[in-house]
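thought: fold this chain, then report.
action: predict
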Amino acid sequence: MTEPAVDVGGDRAPGDRPLRASPRVVLVHTATFRQARQLVPVLIPVAALVGLDDGLLTVVVMAVVVTALSLAASVLSWWRFGYADGQTAVVVTRGLLARSVRTVPNDRIRGVEVEAPPLHRLLGLVRVRIDAAAGSVGANEEELVIDGVPRAEGDRLRARLLARRPAGAPATGDDARPEPAEEEIARFDPRWLLYAPLVGSYLVVPLAAVGTLFRLVQELPDAVVPDVTGPEPSPHLLVIGLVAAVPLLALTAVVGAAVVTWGYRLVRRGGSLVAVRGLLTRRHTELEVDRIRGGTLSEGLGMRWARAARVNALVTGLGQANRRGQLLPLGPRAEALRLLGRLVEDPGPLTGHPRAALRRRLARALAAGLLVTAVGAWTAAALGWWWVPVAGVVLTVLGVPMGIGRYRALGHAAGPRSFSVRSGWLVREQAVLQRRAVVGWQVRQSVLQRRAGLATVVACVGAGSGGYAAVDMAAGEVPGFTAAASSGTWAGTLAP
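observation:
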């Protein structure tokens, strides 16, 4: 059933008319099967019912049918899509049978990202993603996407939407002033790519690719796969393969990091922070300084060994915050701290948590190893499985440095204009937030925490993940910390 049209005339100035994307986007959507991907699982059983076999002719017929359907769906999608950027709102209309009209006021826009995937770049097109606060979509989704506009139009939309001039205000006087000069805050050094093998997210992709390759090889006929290992793999061949895999994984991690971060620059342009990065897909993300409420310093276990870190900005109402708010994708810890200091004032050194928190961390870290050891003692006596208690002892021994490391990661601090909390072991994250970011506090105490005189305090904020916790701090320090982190003034701009 067709949805009723929405009257958006009040959101556009007289003379404004809906605009369309470039017709070249039809080629992009056809080549990527954007609208026809869900049809592939349906066509396979249809082909089986018709009686088509799994020969080459069937594959060719299905490829032609899916391509034709993709082309038809792309043309219809382009024909029924329109957008308009009025004086007070941006309006996007789409849909063939069920029409959808979405209107977002300009004063709700929190960030604009101009993205150029490889095929878009080949055809001179970009994709504009618009984030707005308090939207009706999920926290990890964008409010609006305008796909397939020329690069110049994408840049115009970005500048126009973030300007947010009042309705009816002419583009004269202060609005007609020239583009502000850029101040470069950070630039990616290619030498930082050497940190990539220490970052788990860059190792996941090559490991997944290797797993997919092995699965594909297993599905191939035996006549196609050469027998390089013989009937039983040689232990020496397995050792050589494992040794060769280590530098190969490191190399693929470096390549993956280069694809994501190549050409990274962070500049301040007027009241906005602009981050540009990407080798194949170029991303141009612009965030308003006035919407930034703080930042996070993330250090994985391997990154801490190499003294490397990442920095994310905490921006109110920003979707896909882990990617869109990333201001330093990978770099030295000193550079990360310098950038974090530009986002929000340093609240000072962290205050450690009491020894009771250490005992809780050690108890949790040793529990699994002690349980496996106890069960292993019975299995060793009853079944002769001596490897089970050995594994339990190993887990127990490893639990000691794990518990100590988790305890040392705990900390909190409150300064004149900001506060900070830190926790985590595999990935240690320190959040530094402006006091004005806090919208509420949540104090949690389990039975064991009450007996130990501890409490977990969560600062509820309207940015990032929504809450940042000071885990197992002394219960007596909670009132003082929450009061100190909830008052004071704010500088209002990035630190010089």
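thought: worth noting. Residues 1-15, 134-142, 165-177, 488-496 have pLDDT under 50 and may be disordered.
final: tokens above.
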